């Protein structure tokens, strides 16, 4: 059976269930850690630290996956910086940013200057809960990224895309690489980039069967797998 692609409502339902007692009581920071780690690992499969050492990670309001990814990229030998213009006043995100500061990872507010000194961009601006129009300051951020020739890696959903219908009106990014999490979202069917990976190796067999996800078997100890 073929891999299942998730609509927005079902993706949200699965996230809620993962944090419920019936599915193992994952905490949100656990899921962020596993997701961010899998994205960082997927990046190493395509973009070596020798050719793409300087990574600009762009993070939205609640972009925990991107913050975790930046930390692991540092430990993998890359030189990440983080564009994080709207930082929520929540302990979880404060802890994640403090972890970056403790590693001397720069948190910046001016994307244009940093973009000129980057080899790769990680798009962690919007997730699968995004809907509606792109609001400030991220409307200008996405315009800036769209005008750049630097390769982009999007986390789960390319920012600006409709979760089910893809890049409506060409408003969103067109990344070179997409790392879907848990299971691909329906928008991934419209992805035309070079590299599509799946990460988030935490779904139980019972949950996979319940939702008929038909997930591929991850190789060895890898936390990500390349999709066709």
Automatic annotation (TrEMBL):
Domain YjeF N-terminal span(s) in chain numbering: 11-215
Enzyme class: isomerase
Needed cofactors: K(+)
Highest taxon of source: Eukaryota
NCBIfam families from the UniProt entry: yjeF_nterm (TIGR00197)
GO MF annotation, one: nucleotide binding
Organism, as annotated: Anaeromyces robustus
Function statement: Catalyzes the epimerization of the S- and R-forms of NAD(P)HX, a damaged form of NAD(P)H that is a result of enzymatic or heat-dependent hydration. This is a prerequisite for the S-specific NAD(P)H-hydrate dehydratase to allow the repair of both epimers of NAD(P)HX.
Main location, first listed in the record: cytoplasm
Compartments reported by the entry: Cytoplasm; Mitochondrion
Residue numbers binding K(+): 62, 123, 159
Enzymatic reactions: (6R)-NADHX = (6S)-NADHX; (6R)-NADPHX = (6S)-NADPHX
Protein name: NAD(P)H-hydrate epimerase
GO CC, one annotated term: mitochondrion
Keywords on record: Cytoplasm, Isomerase, Metal-binding, Mitochondrion, NAD, NADP, Nucleotide-binding, Potassium
E.C. numbers: 5.1.99.6
Residues reported in the UniProt entry to bind (6S)-NADPHX: 61-65, 127-133, 156
Family listed: Belongs to the NnrE/AIBP family.
Cofactor-binding details, from the entry: Binds 1 potassium ion per subunit.
